[in-house]
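for the writeup, i need someone to sanity check this before i put it in the appendix. the sequnce is what the collaborator sent (i think, or maybe the updated version? ugh). structure was predicted straight from it, no edits. if anything looks off just tell me and ill rerun, i have time this weekend
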Amino acid sequence: MRVLIVEDDAALGLFLQKGLKLEGHDVSWVGDGEAALVHAAEHRPDLIVLDLSLPKKDGTEVLEEMRGRFDETAVLVLTGRSHVDERVKCLNLGADDCLLKPFSFHELTARCRALLRRREQFADPVLRHGDVEMNRMERKVVRNGRLVELTVKEFSLLEFLLMRRGRCCTRSELLREVWQMSPDAGTNVVDVYVNYLRRKLGAVGADGNEACPVIETVRGEGYRMGAGGRMVARVSEYPVGVAFAGE
């Protein structure tokens, strides 16, 4: 997952960044509230680990603004403020969880995993990016009203890219999360399956003209959903469909 650490204590911030990277996550660290809002707007992290005592903009202000702009991002608050009213305030402002300093790193990582499991469990089942729509509950995909037949692994790859909202997903990340393989595995399976998806999704829009790229290659890094469309989630009014073929 993509994690943003917001902590003004440089030693603690770097420690958390290093530790979560060793857990396999993509982790960034910033030291003040204003930088946190800028980074979140540009990179849309899956999880923000947010200290309350920050320079430039207090953590509670950051939390309130985050919830108004990035409701899909999980927020774990770190605080040395031991009074229960402070933690209640954070939860009422939209924090998903609070962890009192000092804390165990193992407890922090366990709470992070639990937050993301809950977020995914209650996520909207329908994902849309431009003219591509996926119903994750019914395991169905259409583009321009056309039923697209995908294998199980192709569906999982497309779902992962859609959930990342067009952000670049590295080959190592895709190997680890979609194939459960070591990021160091010497294989081109990611590139092969991206080509499968591109062929099946096609390159023609509803008006018969060339459509925006469904999956873009980010040279030297990986892949992301094409910038020509914007992915949103909503409850579908009509059933959409894809039939599953064998692997």
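The chain has two domains: 2-121, 126-245. The domain at 126-245 is CATH 1.10.10.10 (Arc Repressor Mutant, subunit A).
thx in advance!!
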